[in-house]
Write a structure and sequence with these properties.
Elements lengths: L1 H23 L2 H26 L7 H16 L2 H7 L7 H5 L4 H23 L4 H21 L1 H4 L14 H19 L2 H11 L1 H6 L4 H27 L9 H14 L4 H17 L8 E2 L2 E2 L6 H16 L10 H14 L1
Antiparallel strand pairs: 1-2
Helix pairs in contact: 1-9, 2-9, 2-12, 2-13, 2-14, 3-6, 3-7, 3-12, 6-12, 10-12, 13-14
Length: 342
């Protein structure tokens, strides 16, 4: 009972902080927080299939694209679609699609979840590197589909003037919900089954665990939240195109979950703040600086070089990431027990 009250108070405090930030912070700071919130949703969901379940999947950019396009098509009015689709007229079903913000975001997540269900049958017939190759191909297929089907996606031109409903109040709240849901999954019997599949799939099968269903459940859950994150991204940026959903997006998420610790949701959250925040905070390195009275000149991309060096140094001293495969509460509890024994 006491733990439940503490958890509820922490959730209320987090919501109050999100509300305060939404009302009081400037637009520049809020844009950074919005970016962190969206990537937190994507990293948390990606870590469920890749870290907790141990399936080396490279599919996030595909599901993010699905969620982004579905949400955008639901939010855009029919007149705007007719004006926007320059190559060919929009398909009749595209003109009929319309929903409010939250239903549109959920619809994007559900469609990504449905695609994940269909994809799970061929995908989970293989393991390891082969699984990575299959899921990597899925991301390319989605991008090629978006380019070559202008009646549904407006082709390479993408979608513009998407209604900007995604503010920090929504993004922060959904990121908090994602974090809570992922923690509940990790500590549930399904989470323990996912970890068993990660540690030794053959042993898990021998113990009576339906490994295909566990992997499929993790895959679908991950796809749903990646689709939701894609929908928020579309509304936040107000414009999307196929070039935004390349493998680079998956690579960014992979960096985050490896840095935070494969299997640690707390680690993914902290790593998202570090990675996305650092990429913005180091922006001054790209511009002209004065060091000891000398102008260095502008060097675009220098912040990425410095960030990569810092990342390499951090991974050399923490090969399992910041938190390994444990949550922060588990680490604190272990330290408390060690001190109590001493």
């Amino acid at each position: 009972m006491k733990n439940a009250i503490i958890k509820m108070l922490l959730i209320i405090l987090a919501l109050l902080m999100i509300g305060w930030a939404h009302r009081n912070l400037d637009s520049y700071t809020l844009s950074i927080l919005n970016n962190i919130g969206i990537f937190a949703i994507l990293a948390l969901s990606y870590n469920l299939i890749n870290g907790v379940t141990g399936q080396f999947s490279l599919e996030p950019n595909g599901f993010v694209a699905i969620g982004a396009y579905m949400t955008a098509l639901f939010l855009l009015p029919a007149d705007a679609k007719l004006d926007m689709f320059a190559l060919v007229d929009p398909a009749p079903i595209v003109l009929k699609m319309h929903a409010d913000f939250i239903p549109a975001v959920i619809a994007g997540g559900l469609f990504a979840m449905f695609i994940a269900l269909l994809l799970s049958f061929p995908v989970f017939r293989v393991r390891g590197d082969y699984l990575a190759i299959v899921t990597l191909g899925f991301g390319f297929i989605i991008r090629i589909f978006a380019i070559n089907n202008p009646a549904y996606t407006n082709g390479a031109l993408g979608l513009n003037d998407i209604p900007p409903y995604a503010n920090f109040l929504w993004i922060g709240s959904i990121a908090l919900v994602t974090f809570i849901v992922m923690l509940h999954i990790v500590f549930s019997r399904y989470g323990r089954a996912m970890k068993a599949v990660r540690d030794d799939e053959d042993a898990a099968t021998a113990m009576g665990i339906n490994t295909f269903w566990i992997k499929t459940t993790a895959f679908m859950t991950s796809a749903f939240f990646e689709g939701v994150g894609g929908g928020l991204l579309a509304s936040f940026l107000t414009t999307i195109s196929p070039d935004q959903f390349t493998f680079l997006l998956t690579f960014q998420l992979l960096i985050i979950i490896v840095l935070g610790g494969l299997g640690s949701m707390t680690g993914s959250l902290v790593a998202t703040i570090l990675v996305m925040g650092s990429m913005e905070w180091l922006r001054f390195l790209d511009s002209d600086m004065v060091i000891f009275g000398h102008h260095t000149g502008a060097h675009p991309g220098m912040r990425m070089v410095v960030f990569a060096i810092l990342l390499i140094i951090m991974m050399l001293f923490a090969r399992k990431g910041l938190f390994g495969d444990k949550e922060l509460i588990e680490i604190l509890r272990d330290k408390f027990r060690k001190k109590a024994k001493q």
